[in-house]
Every structure is written in structure tokens, then in C-alpha cells.
């Protein structure tokens, strides 16, 4: 289900964004995708609708690479648009897999942008191919296109509902149609995020609507946050306003806890919880649970920064930027030799030697996946003169693969699944290693312990407690 087993960090699949009823909808969508760039750096796409025709442009690369030319934006007219940033989990990095996907039906055009992963996409695809459906991509998003096409219902909305009732997985969707306008949805357990916003002017009844993966994408275009789309909720936005449907009833919620640990931008607010504050509190919990004598607390940029601030405040040990991140690297070039490949971490991070030399250092990072990056960072800090290096991780040990839209290696490649804590510390070269406890993580999120908090979150990558059926895995099918 994952794109590659060579990953050293987990990666989120993508970000979605849509606007309705605003001038220059495509330009606002491009700005929204800029804010969501952290959720996917492999490709970007926009589909707009001008009231008569659909227009689309997509390509490989960052948002600025794909939409940085004003001549491209001029080809995307209309007051309605949806966009997508991609990081591939299902399907490789090819233009045919770049979203939004668009299709012409008997009833007209339809575009769909999808964040997450379907756990029965291979099973559905197998059945659809037998029915004569022809797939043009290898992404699981195309399953929605075909399920809508073969539905026997009359209206587009009923076809959409018919389609989503057949899929299993963790996802948020934004669909664009001529008649129904924007359709937004989260999966029945709300594992992946989706928020609703409004543009200025809504108090006078003329402000447009916005759907986005995170609130930071609302901020960049000056939209006001309205609320999170609820688990299993479908919202329809068109000339009649906004209406909400709940075809799945209320199944509770299991929001991805890793959004708070790593994926979301720290200035976002998800499920009512500010991401920055959640990370800072995790750092405080780590300091209480795994105190060690040291001279400086150093974050591994960027996700480790708020937690390191919390750790330093709670422990009384000074916070220092002992590692500097190069924000202009982008995706690492194809390394021709092992020697160059081993230098890759220095392209993204460099040691701040005056801060580290002669110091006992606490390194705060978000996770350990395969362990190779952690080893390189510890080695880099030691080479800068640190006398001790103590690694503190703001998540519990990652022992299980994710099947819900996060690109992680198979379990046999996860260090925490094959090593004890002492073996992990030795493997990465740290003097000590500690992870935040389950109870500490959930205390940081405002719950008494995991027993209380786990009823609201998905933490399957830590526990193996998968709340959504893994149909393809159990049937030994590969999407």
C-alpha cells in the first residue's frame, strides 16, 4: 500500500482545497495549496468551473512550480475551483495520477480531489475492471470516478452517496460538479481532516465558501473558520447555500493523532485543538516523564520546535537552535553514490556548532521510523562537539504500518517493531532514548489517559488498533 519502503520519515499523502462563489477562485486555490504545501510536494493540480466549462491544469513539482506563471492562472477562469497537493501513497509519481481527477459523464463534468487512502480500493478496482471499467491512473481516487459512473441513481449527489457507501478507508473529499457545486466529505470516522470557512462579506450574504484540509489554508486567503466538517458528514455548497447530509449516521470519530504530532502545520487548529499548543504540551509531558541532566534542549526542525520549547520550559534547561534547517532544498536530488547519499541529511539540516560544542544535548524529534535519519542527526550533533546526546521523541514508538493515507514502511522495516528501546538507542548512537507515553500523549491533548483519548483518535501506527477494516490487506490484494 505504501509507495516505497525506503522512507526514513512518515509522509502525509496530500492536501485538498476548494472555494465556491468568489472571483479569481483559481488564484485563491493556488494560495490555499501554498499553505498546504507541507502535506504534499510531488505534484499539484487545480480544476475550475466558469459556469459553462471546466478548466484544469496540473503538473509535477511544488505549487509555485506548477502555478507560478500568470499565463497558467489565466487559463483557469471561474468563481469555483478545487485543488490538490499530492504525496503518493497509492500510485506512483506520474502526471496521470495528479489530482484533481476530472471525468465527463452523461450528466456533465465532475472533478474530485482526495486526501487519504481506501483500504478496499484494490478489491473495488478488480470488480470494476471485470465490469468493463478502464482505469487511466494507478491512484485509488479513480475508484470514485468509476463508482459514480456506474451508479443507477439519477442525481449526481445520489450517485456520489452511492459511491462513498461502497468504499472503506480514511479520506476527505472535495468534488466539483456543475449543478451541485462543491461537495465536501469526511470518512465516517473522520480520520483525515477537512474544515469549512467563509470569505469576507458573508455577513452581508455574499461571501464565498471554502473547504480545506487545515485552517492555515483559510488564513492565507483571509477566510474565517466556521467549523470542522464532522465525521461522515457531506456538505453541499451551491447557489442555494450550504446544506449538510449524514448518510452514515453518527459513528463517533477517530481523528488521526499524528496530525498533531507531525503532519499539520503548527499554526493550524484541528478538531478545536491548536496544533502548536498540542505539540508544546507533548514536550512538557516528555520532560516530566523522561528527565535527564543536560545543558541545552535542541529541536530537530521543524516539527520538533514547539515540543522542544515545552520540554525546555518544563525542565528549566535552555532552549537553543542547535540544528538549522535549509528551507530551500525541496526534494533531494537522485544521489549517484553512497557517499553523496549519506550526505543527504546535511542538505536539509546543519549543526550550529557554537551551540552544541562541549554540551550535553537533548534532541527533540517527532518520530523514529527506520532510524537512519536519526542516526545521521545524532552523528552530526556529536561531530559538532556535543559530549552527550539524549534523544526524546514526541510520539510513542511507531510499530505498525499505516493504511489510512500516511506513507510508512512495512512493519519489518520499522525500527521500533524489531528493536528494544535499548537496541534503538544503540543503533542511532544516542546516550539515551525515550518516547512520550500513550498516557502522556493523550494528557497533552486534554484527556486523562489513553483509555479516554483513544476513543476519539486513531493511533493504529503505534498500537495496531485499526478502526477501519483492511479489506485489501486481508485479501492479499495490492492497490
Automatic annotation (TrEMBL):
Organism taxonomic ancestry: Bacteria, Pseudomonadati, Pseudomonadota, Alphaproteobacteria, Acetobacterales
GO molecular function, one term: magnesium ion binding
Keyword check for Chaperone: no
Function recorded in the entry: Catalyzes the formation of phosphoribosylamine from phosphoribosylpyrophosphate (PRPP) and glutamine.
Top-rank lineage group of the source organism: Bacteria
Gene3D superfamilies in UniProt: 3.40.50.2020, Glutamine Phosphoribosylpyrophosphate, subunit 1, domain 1
Annotated binding of Mg(2+), by residue: 303, 365-366
Protein family according to the UniProt entry: In the C-terminal section; belongs to the purine/pyrimidine phosphoribosyltransferase family.
EC numbers for this chain: 2.4.2.14
GO annotation terms (biological process): 'de novo' IMP biosynthetic process; purine nucleobase biosynthetic process
A Pfam cross-reference name: GATase_6
Keywords: 4Fe-4S, Glutamine amidotransferase, Glycosyltransferase, Iron, Iron-sulfur, Magnesium, Metal-binding, Purine biosynthesis, Transferase
Binding site for [4Fe-4S] cluster: 256, 402, 458, 461
Listed name of the protein: Amidophosphoribosyltransferase
Keyword Transferase: yes
Cofactor(s) named in the record: [4Fe-4S] cluster; Mg(2+)
Pathway: Purine metabolism; IMP biosynthesis via de novo pathway; N(1)-(5-phospho-D-ribosyl)glycinamide from 5-phospho-alpha-D-ribose 1-diphosphate: step 1/2
Cofactor binding notes: Binds 1 [4Fe-4S] cluster per subunit. Binds 1 Mg(2+) ion per subunit.
The reaction(s) this protein catalyses: 5-phospho-beta-D-ribosylamine + L-glutamate + diphosphate = 5-phospho-alpha-D-ribose 1-diphosphate + L-glutamine + H2O
Classification via NCBIfam families: purF
Residue ranges occupied by any Glutamine amidotransferase type-2 domain in the UniProt entry: 14-240
PROSITE patterns per UniProt: GATASE_TYPE_2 (PS51278)
Residue positions of the active site: 14 (nucleophile)
Amino acid at each position: 500500500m505504501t509507495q516505497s519502503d525506503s522512507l526514513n520519515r512518515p509522509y502525509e499523502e496530500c492536501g485538498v482545497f476548494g472555494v465556491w462563489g468568489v472571483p479569481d477562485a483559481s488564484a485563491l486555490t493556488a494560495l490555499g495549496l501554498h499553505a498546504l504545501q507541507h502535506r504534499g510536494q510531488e505534484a499539484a493540480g487545480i480544476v475550475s468551473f466558469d459556469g459553462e466549462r471546466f478548466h484544469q491544469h496540473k503538473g509535477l513539482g511544488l505549487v509555485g512550480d506548477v502555478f507560478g506563471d500568470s499565463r497558467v492562472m489565466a487559463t483557469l477562469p471561474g468563481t469555483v475551483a478545487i485543488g490538490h497537493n499530492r504525496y503518493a501513497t497509492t500510485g506512483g509519481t506520474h502526471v496521470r495520477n495528479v489530482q484533481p481527477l476530472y471525468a465527463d459523464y452523461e450528466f456533465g463534468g465532475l472533478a474530485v480531489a482526495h486526501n487519504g487512502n481506501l483500504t478496499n480500493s484494490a478489491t473495488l478496482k478488480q470488480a470494476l475492471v471485470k465490469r468493463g471499467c478502464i482505469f487511466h491512473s494507478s491512484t485509488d481516487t479513480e475508484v470514485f470516478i468509476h463508482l459514480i459512473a456506474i451508479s443507477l441513481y439519477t442525481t449526481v449527489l445520489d450517485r456520489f452517496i452511492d459511491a462513498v457507501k461502497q468504499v472503506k478507508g480514511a479520506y476527505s473529499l472535495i468534488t466539483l460538479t456543475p449543478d451541485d457545486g462543491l461537495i465536501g466529505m469526511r470518512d465516517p470516522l473522520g480520520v483525515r481532516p477537512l474544515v469549512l470557512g467563509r470569505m469576507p462579506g458573508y455577513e452581508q450574504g455574499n461571501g464565498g465558501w471554502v473547504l480545506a484540509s487545515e485552517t492555515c489554508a483559510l488564513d492565507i486567503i483571509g477566510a474565517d473558520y466556521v467549523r470542522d466538517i464532522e465525521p461522515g458528514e457531506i456538505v453541499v455548497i451551491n447557489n442555494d447555500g450550504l446544506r449538510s447530509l449524514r448518510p452514515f449516521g453518527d459513528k463517533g470519530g477517530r481523528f488521526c493523532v499524528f496530525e498533531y504530532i507531525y503532519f499539520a502545520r503548527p499554526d493550524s487548529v484541528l478538531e478545536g485543538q491548536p496544533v502548536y499548543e498540542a505539540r508544546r504540551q507533548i514536550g512538557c509531558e516528555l520532560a516530566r516523564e523522561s528527565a535527564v541532566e543536560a545543558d541545552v534542549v535542541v529541536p530537530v526542525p521543524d516539527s520538533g520546535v514547539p515540543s522542544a520549547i515545552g520540554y525546555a520550559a518544563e525542565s528549566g534547561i535552555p532552549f537553543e537552535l542547535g540544528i538549522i534547517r535549509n528551507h530551500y532544498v525541496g526534494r533531494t536530488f537522485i544521489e549517484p553514490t553512497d557517499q553523496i547519499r549519506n550526505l543527504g541529511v546535511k542538505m536539509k539540516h546543519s549543526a550550529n556548532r557554537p551551540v552544541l560544542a562541549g554540551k550535553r544535548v537533548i534532541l527533540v524529534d517527532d518520530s523514529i521510523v527506520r532510524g537512519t535519519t536519526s542516526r545521521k542527526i545524532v552523528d552530526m550533533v556529536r561531530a559538532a562537539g556535543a559530549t552527550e546526546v539524549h534523544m526524546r521523541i514526541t510520539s510513542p514508538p511507531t510499530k505498525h504500518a499505516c493504511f489510512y493515507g500516511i506513507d510508512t514502511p512495512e512493519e519489518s522495516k520499522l525500527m521500533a517493531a524489531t528493536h528494544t528501546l535499548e537496541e534503538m538507542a544503540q543503533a542511532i548512537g544516542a546516550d539515551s532514548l525515550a518516547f512520550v507515553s500513550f498516557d502522556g500523549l493523550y494528557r497533552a491533548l486534554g484527556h486523562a489517559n489513553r483509555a479516554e483519548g483513544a476513543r476519539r483518535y486513531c493511533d493504529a501506527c503505534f498500537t495496531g488498533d485499526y478502526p477501519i477494516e483492511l479489506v485489501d490487506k486481508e485479501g492479499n490484494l495490492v492497490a
